[in-house]
Amino acid sequence: MIDSPVLERVLSEALRHGGEFAEVFAEDRSTSSAMLDDGRVEELSSGRERGAGIRVVSGETTGFAHTADLSESGLLRAAEAASAVARSGGGGTTSLAVGPLAADGDAGGGGDRPVTRSPGSKADTLELLTRADDAARASGDAISQVQAGCGTSRRQVLIANSEGLLARDEQARTRFSVSCVATGDTGLQTGFESAARTLGFELFDEISVEELAQLAANRALSKLSARPAPSGELPVVLAGGSGGILFHEACGHGLEADHIVKDASVYTGMVGQQVASPLVTLVDDGTVGSEWGTFAFDDEGRPAQRNVLIDKGILTDYLWDYLRARKEGWVSSGNGRRQTYQHLPMVRMTNTFLLPGQEDADEIVAQTPSGVYVAKLGGGQVNTTTGDFVFGTTEAYLIEGGRLTEPLRDANLIGNGPEILKRIDAVATDFAMTPGTCGKDGQSVPVGCGQATLRLTGVTIGGTAE
């Protein structure tokens, strides 16, 4: 993508007027997306974007400039712009755009790790979408609308800095999703399911688009006969894979070092203390197979790694990006991530999950006299400083006498992340991961979330039943 001699000259220019650290992050990203809405092709597009971001640090001031011009002259101009901001002093961070916006076209260069199976043709993609549409509609006459989507990306990155680091990575990602609407006496009800991996089209050797579509359709259909959820504090059983997003949002963000050093987290200063049930071991791991948050190197060129954050209830560490860790006398945990070359890296989660336990998932339900079983969480709101949260559910059932009985609708979980970690009293073996997109400070990155079936002794249910 950029020759090593050019990188050396750009880094030298970045530090020519002073400063203690300079970095070049170059990216070449190709994307494609397709969407079928009620059997009609609503989207069929592809694009390519390339560019570089250059960061210069001088004391407490960070200068950052990005450019779509990967020629040596374009990179040198960006380096000078970032350097000028850094040496201006005053603290803080300033970002600049240098040169024209990127245009689709040949980006040149090549990756170091070829994708096993590149994205299929438009015809291949449309066939997958049509199969999903057919399967969803075959699930029941009440299915009135089906939307299926497929998106792929291939990202080549190069990171070099003034400390001699040079890292290259190639990341392929493919995602497939199905959304359904069912119409009945209770109005319109929705269901959604998706699968996503750091793979090319070999994803479809591992999953069945028909099964995804049936899951989404059945989720919508079950809500047609669902009763309003009860209100009050009840035991809650989270199905394997269903609750990972809750722990990501309500607990994981509080363990990111930028919140810690600003004293904006309930976990500040608590390393070595009991913060959760002894059944809880919370891990962030960017090396897990082909999960959605997996990569070889983070966006500062540090190898992805496995980080145990909570070990049997004891807080053991936080998540760190490189520069913040260096400033605090710590080491990077491989969690410096950015959305694109136009963004500065910040500390972010990768694949965050609770380790499985030893109990049987069915037995956990059988040993719960009454409560709510959450098969899938929906969207929510979280105060990352306090951990307070409200999460909706997209599939939930009443537990009565140790059995799942009626489906529920409009069930919201209300609570506090650090508090619910202490209320976990059973964890099963049926570990599962789900893909997600994490937003923070205007940047979105792919992440994985996971856990096995577990029980919370008490969570406030914000239902609508009278």
What does this structure look like?
The protein has helices spanning 4-14, 72-87, 122-137, 203-206, 209-224, 244-252, 257-261, 322-327, 361-366, 417-421, and strands spanning 21-37, 40-58, 61-67, 92-98, 143-161, 166-184, 187-197, 227-228, 232-238, 282-285, 306-311, 314-315, 336-337, 346-347, 351-354, 370-382, 388-400, 403-409, 412-416, 424-427, 432-440, 443-451, 454-462. The protein has 466 residues and is an alpha+beta fold. The protein has two domains: 4-224, 2-Layer Sandwich (PmbA/TldD fold); 228-462, no CATH class. The strands form four sheets. A seven-stranded mixed beta sheet has the order 4-3-2-1-5-6-7. It has a six-stranded mixed beta sheet with strand order 12-11-10-15-22-21, with helices on one face. Strands 9-16-17-19-23 form a five-stranded mixed barrel. Helix 1 (4-14) runs parallel beside helix 2 (72-87) and helix 3 runs parallel beside helix 5 (209-224). It is globular, with a radius of gyration of 24 Å.
